[in-house]
Amino acid sequence: MSYPGKLTVACFAVFTVLSSAQAQTPPVLQIALTNTSPQLIISGATGHVHQVQWAASLAGGSNTWQMLTNLNAPNTPIAWVDTTATGAAERYYRVVVLPNGQPTNPDPTRLVWIPAGTFTLGSPENEPDRDPNEGPQTGVTLTKGFFMRKNLTTQGDYLAITGSNPSRFTGDTNRPVERVTWFNSSNYCALLTQAEQAAGRLPAGWGYRLPTEAEWEYACRAGTTTRFSYGDDPDYISLGAYAWFEANSAFTTHPVGQKLPNPWGLYDMHGNLSQWCSNWYASTHPGGNVTDPTGPVGPAVSRVIRGAGYFYSGSACRSAYRYPWVPAGSDSSIGFRVVLAASP
Question: Which domains, and CATH codes, for the chain?
Answer without folding.
Answer: 2-97 (2.60.40.10), 111-342 (3.90.1580.10)
